[in-house]
Amino acid sequence: MQNRGAIKFFAIAFALVCLYQLSFTFFAYRAEGNAKDYAVNETAQQLAKDLANGDEVMESYLFDSISQKREKYYLDSIANVVVYNLGVAKYTYNDVKEREINLGLDLKGGMNVTLEVSVADIVNALSGNSQDPVFRQAMTLAHQKQKNSGEDFVTLFGESFNEVDPNARLASIFLFEFKDKGITTSSTNAEVLQVIRTEAEGAIDRSFQILRTRIDRFGVAQPNIQKLATSGRILIELPGIKDPERVRKLLQGTAKLEFWETYNFSEVYTYFDEANRRLKQEMSVEESIADEGVGESPLEADSQKETVEAEKSNDIAEAIENVADTSSNELLNQIESDTSAANNDANFEQYAKDNPLYAYLMPSYSTDENGRPFAVKTARVGIAAIKDTARINNMLSKVKDVFPREMRLVWSVKPNPETPDLLELVALKASSRDGSAAMAGDVIADARQDYGQNGEVTVDLQMDSQGAKIWKRLTGENVGRQIAIVLDDYVYSFPVVNDEIPSGRSTISGGGMTIEEAQDLANILKAGKLPAAARIVEENVVGPSLGREAVTSGMNSFILAFILVLAYMIVYYSRAGVVANIALVTNIFFLFGVLASIGAVLTLPGMAGIVLTLGMAVDANVIIYERIKEEVRAGKGMQLAIVDGYKNAYSAIVDGNVTTLLTGIVLYIFGSGPVQGFATTLIIGILSSLFTAIFITRMTFTWMQKKNMPITFASKATANVLSKANFNFI
Fold first, then answer.
1. Distance CA 603, CA 239 (A)
2. Is the distance from CB of 28 to CB of 102 less than 8 angstroms?
3. How many other β-carbons are positioned within 10 Å of the β-carbon of residue 312?
4. 3-class DSSP state for residue 250?
5. DSSP secondary structure code for residue 241 in this structure
6. How far apart are CA 399 and CA 671, in angstroms?
7. Which residues contact 588 (CB under 8 A, 6 or more apart)?
């Protein structure tokens, strides 16, 4: 075999790459296994028992709920903790989770949603809700045509408009909206339709970006979101989701873009100090009540028991919601078990008693030249670890009466690149009695990614005439202060206003934005211009139990097929069968390694493709072995028979596999969903099986010959099976 060294090098390198890619799945599963162990330990069982108060049904329900909360809390806590250390590279739980083999909905359970963005609503909005009779008739006719046509709505609208009145001009209807798009009174209908199509596609893209941002904030692991051709539909797959109603609200809710005035921390630090002091007092009172209850009289105990029972039903939901917080030190001790970490936990526990809020929220204090602390003049009132934001929200809700009614505290949408584990808490200031923002996002006329004077990535905004007036007043009143840009209750940016901006133009910069992030933010900001409503047109919910059954069934069929193939090859081809089995195991290893490398989603049809690959993988070896047996019967020596057997089998192997490969490629290109999942594993399996069946087995035989090991291609029982078969009908 020529180029044996190159093939050996490639095989070893490929195996190492596959092993590296599959290692992420192993460490992700190990971390999740630890989370499950933490979720169902004795602490969770005892807490469920205490809350249920003897009710076994309620205890089982509470234990399930508490376990889920504790598991989620554990995984959130180790999100940025290193769980895989290679020495040259370290990977957190989030890193390994992103690189593990993705399981589809049919294997993991979850929710599959198809949303449709109404292009008709977009066209109507672009016309300024025109009441022109020709326009209205054309819209009605286009709706009727869409029911029985595969054309996009803009094309149908153009045809309908021409049918209603061939002499009517679209430019007269869309001129005001498109005057900055090159449309004039003399523009043809085709030119106007082209701009409408571009704007409609842009609106769908912006809806897609908004949905993707919301899903990322929802915290679903390995979501899949994709646009479906030109239909204006968006497919969303959310594996492992357990709250479908929340997903529906999340996906169909209107994007809310707002511009808020802000407080400086130097103006409100006293409120946070008071909140910290109040929380300390409440904790002291709770501890003293608990201590006094130890030696109370039976009468007092009965009285207290009645009170607790009356209030327990109201407290169960809150107890479950905050259950993870009750064992934070236990979790920290599990993650960091060395002596120094234990000492740090002890110090932190004491500090948390003295400063409950500031133990988790690092306030925006700094020190002057003399080392004296002072409150910084910034809208960022503090920073906190991502895993602690829920705890802080809970504490702030308990002392919300301490803060001004006009103040809202909102977290930043993502961490700063320099501090990937921390989020910023920003103090917003309501500008009206109803607690609303200073300006809504529907005034944005255009937004695009650009570059600043120093080459940094920015987003340039252009507002309409009404927005420009409000923006001029807002920036003029807040020179030297910060204005926060908030979308869906998360702060995207809070730049400092350097001067009054009369033109309605503004720039968002900072935060280490990448070009892609700036483009996404520009798309999101433009969403206020064209609120393209999305409605759910198809929805499927797959329960986790069904997913487990699918995994079990799929794995059982895979294992059974695997064992049968291995047994058949050994029985029929003896030692050569063992070599074929080595190639088969290597093939499966390569297949899963490639799946993990390219981030492909493994579905139930994909597992069917793997099972099919098992049969096709040994098919090439069967052809080769039968050719070798023919050469041996012709009187050739074993070494020459192997060489000629491989040479004569190549054409048949290539013909059979190339046709199947082409079929798989066609299925992948034109198929979707289950068909595409099947095609993916089939294509990868064919390519890897060709390599292993031809090259791995040939290298193994060469090695065996060098070691003078006996090579047999049949057992006594199968040596002459079908060798002299004669069928009259063939």
1. 11
2. no
3. 14
4. helix
5. -
6. 56
7. 562, 610, 614
Indicate the length of the chain as a whole number: 730
Q: How far apart are CA 172 and CA 186, in angstroms?
A: 9
Alpha-carbon distance 583 to 573, whole Å?
14
CB 680 within 8 A of CB 687: no
Distance between CA atoms of residues 451 and 213, nearest Å:
23
Indicate left, alpha or beta for 702 from its phi (over 0: left) and psi (-120 to 50: alpha): alpha
Nearest to 449 by CA among 529, 509, 504, 519: 519
Give the DSSP letter of residue 694: I
Q: Which residue has the tokens 């599963």?
A: 29
DSSP element (H, E) containing 393: helix 389-398
Contact of 63 with 45, CB cutoff 8 Å? yes
SS3 labels along 643-690:
HHHHHHHHHHHHHHHHHHHHHHHHHHHHCCCHHHHHHHHHHHHHHHHH
User: What would the 3-class secondary structure string for 345-392 be?
Assistant: HHHHHHHHHHCCCCCCCEECEEECCCCCEEECCCCEEEEEEHHHHHHH
Residues 6 or more apart whose CB falls under 8 angstroms from that of 468 comprise 502, 503, 504
Q: Give the model confidence (pLDDT) of 406-439 as tens digits.
A: 899 999 887 877 777 889 999 999 887 778 888 8
**Cβ–Cβ under 8 Å, residues 426 and 491:** yes
* Secondary structure element (H or E) that encloses residue 446, with its range: strand 444-451
CA distance 491 to 381: 13
Token representation of residue 589: 């290893």
pLDDT of residue 678 exceeding 70: yes
What confidence tens digit (pLDDT) does each residue in 93-114 have? 888 887 888 777 677 777 778 8
CB count in 10 Å sphere of residue 23: 17
- 571: Cα separation from own chain's centroid: 47
Strand partners, 457: 451
**Cβ density class 375-411: b for 16+ within 10 Å, e for less:** beebbbbbbbbbbbbebbeebbeebeebbeeebbbbb
- The DSSP result for 4-54, as a single string, is HHHHHHHHHHHHHHHHHHHHHHHHHHHHHHHHHHHHTSHHHHHHHHHHHTT
Tell me the pLDDT tens digit for each residue of 270-302: 999 999 999 988 887 766 655 554 444 333 444
**DSSP per position, 132-198:** -HHHHHHHHHHHHHHTT--S-HHHHHHHHHHHH-TT--HHHHHHHHHGGGT--TT--HHHHHHHHHH
Give the SS3 label for residue 279.
helix
User: What residues are paired with 373 via a beta bridge?
Assistant: 367
What does the buried/exposed string (b/e) look like for 189-198 if buried means 16 or more CB atoms within 10 Å of the residue's CB? eebbbbbbbe
Radius of gyration of the chain (CA): 33
Q: 489: alpha, beta or left, given left = phi > 0 and alpha = psi -120 to 50?
A: left
User: Distance between CA atoms of 624 and 701, rounded to whole angstroms?
Assistant: 12
CA angle 243, 244, 249 (to 5 degrees): 105
Residues 568, 569, 572, 576: what is their CA dihedral angle, to the nearest 10 degrees? -170
Determine the pLDDT at residue 346: 60
